[in-house]
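Changelog-adjacent note: as of this version, every example in the card shows the full chain rather than a window. The one below runs 305 residues end to end.
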Amino acid sequence: MMMKPEGIYSAMMTPFDAQGRVDTEQAKAITRFLVEKKVDGAFCVSNVGEFLHMDMDEKKALIDAVLEAGEGKLRVTPGVCDVKLKDSIALAQYSARAGADAVVICAPYYYPYPQEYILTYLKEVVENAPLPVILYNAPGFTSAIQMDNLLSLCAHPNVVGVKESSGDIRFTYQLMRALEEQKIDINVMVGFEELLLPGLTAGVKGCTVSCGGIIPEVLHEILNAYRAGDMVRASAAQKAVVAVTDELKKIGFPYGYKLGCLARGFDFKLFKEPCMAALEQKLVAELPRVRAVICQQMENLGLKM
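Full-length structure tokens:
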């Protein structure tokens, strides 16, 4: 039986060093943190992880580092998103050889591609990936995948899940209903941490989100409280997540989330480009405030950083 994504997955930030290289030692440290916090999966080479800024060798090095540090204790599902079909397939094949559990693929981006192009592109990746595929619906960053095309792809035997990052809970409910009606047995994970609790009421199996590497304890609180039927506790934890992401979004994506990661004790550069040192200094000045918000929200729930 193929794996299906479930629980709390971290969309991982990619740590860069002062020379703009992928800091594989920090990537390993982040992965060990995820294991310690009982995070179920790691989505490396991600959107928040700035895959657009990485070449193929850097992506491979990051995948290797996460797999090494994970030691099989969490699922590793690298992103293979690209606008070059051959590179998406090549990275999926590399991920399989390296020992990943699945890969994540989004629709091609930048140009307003016709739906037929999007469907054909994604189908090629799905059929040529030698390991399970998680579809990534992220219309805020890529071409939107229309519902009929998404369902067609979900019916493929190599597809095991959807990272649903539309941010539209109505769409999530529509997707869950359609999957049930068509008897398509895959797992859906919300891609917005603010929508974990409402997503669970729709039938999703968890989340794949940036805060999986920032406040995994709070996300676990939501999931565990919901499963236990404690909606008061689940709601309180969901409100705490929103309070944290409100602060991170004031700084901007993905850098606010990278500051959130730094607030948990990691040490890496926000920008790959060394010429951004002045801007880096300006943003890092916000770190004490970010750390204080995270600490306060966790304390409100009786949790410790």
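Structural remarks: The radius of gyration is 18 Å.
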